[in-house]
Design a protein that fits this description.
The chain is mainly alpha-helical. It has four helices and no strands. The chain folds into two domains: 35 residues, no CATH class; 37 residues. Helix 2 packs across helix 3. The longest helix has 34 residues. The protein is elongated, with a radius of gyration of 21 Å.
Length: 80
């Protein structure tokens, strides 16, 4: 945030931080709207981190299942 506010272009600031332009753009936008919380915000508990990880894993597994169901239907139809 400070790099962009001091006059550095968004692309140059993102490149110097090793992050994507879009991510930094989203952070700058959220900061300007007052929606960005800093490091002083409430820390995330271990349980919340585990819940987030499990939700992401569940989403991935559901997607894999759907792909396998479609592949099974395709090959069953092709063999008959």
């Amino acid at each position: 945030m400070r790099l962009v506010e001091t006059g550095l272009t968004l692309a140059a600031a993102a490149r110097s931080l090793g992050m994507s332009d879009q991510t930094l753009f989203n952070w700058v936008k959220a900061h300007r709207q007052g929606k960005l919380t800093g490091a002083d915000s409430k820390p995330v508990s271990a349980e919340q981190m585990e819940i987030s990880r499990l939700r992401a894993e569940l989403t991935r597994v559901k997607m894999e299942r759907d792909i396998l169901e479609k592949a099974t239907a395709y090959f069953a139809k092709a063999s008959s």
